[in-house]
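Supplementary notes for students who missed Thursday's class. We covered one full example, reproduced here. Read the sequence, then the structure, then the short commentary at the end.
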Amino acid sequence: MVTSILLVGCGKMGGALLHGWIKNDALVISTFDPHYADADYHSAADITATYDVIVLAVKPQIMADVARDLKHLVKPATLILSIAAGKTIGFYEDIFGAATSIVRVMPNTPALIGKGMSVLCGNAATSAPQRHLSMNLMAVAGDAEWIDTEYLMDAVTAVSGSGPAYVFHLVEAMTAAGIAAGLPPALSEKLSRQTVIGSAALAESDGATPAATFRQNVTSPGGTTEAALKILMSENGLTDLMTRAIQAAQKRGKELAS
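Structure (token representation):
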């Protein structure tokens, strides 16, 4: 069965999804982006065809205007799939109607290389086949999970949506610490970056093994790693710091949504 898709927005994330979808013969994809020369459409008024799925991949700041311009394309069986951060299902229901099937997705930037983590949730109008289709569409960008309550989306955003920035800052912090320990800057950055890359690959290679086990495997009693972990795992250490950071991100997400 062939599924027709209108991709609205061909930026980094939309482009990454398009790159994965064009390899699937079961998908027929049209693109709409006024700023992308190779798009099929540059004006919403020019679009007359109907689509099984309309994927909204534009910036949140312009989403309201773009969505309203596309309202004429939405039919009873149309699925709206949005990857815009901070825009709730209710936001789209106000535009397209509560009877329209709407799926909200929170991806993250590793999706650009097919290593992303996407979390999806849908409104009451979303059918089981549409849920399955949405999961399959996002699987081209990496792993995907479905949640039954949108309430969790702010926590999802705080952990996986914003999470890549935390990891990149970890590389920065390790680099700075290595320099303080006497390493040349370039070498310190290379050691820090590759350590994070290699550790992530190791965790991916054995998904059944808890992170704690990997940590314990590196830690010899009385050794250098244990000395460092006594600092990182202290009462006010990394867990406390990360908890406060994620709570701040979650709080900000709720503020932006309201």
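Commentary. The first strand starts at residue 3 and ends at 8. The radius of gyration is 21 Å. If anything here is unclear, bring it to office hours.
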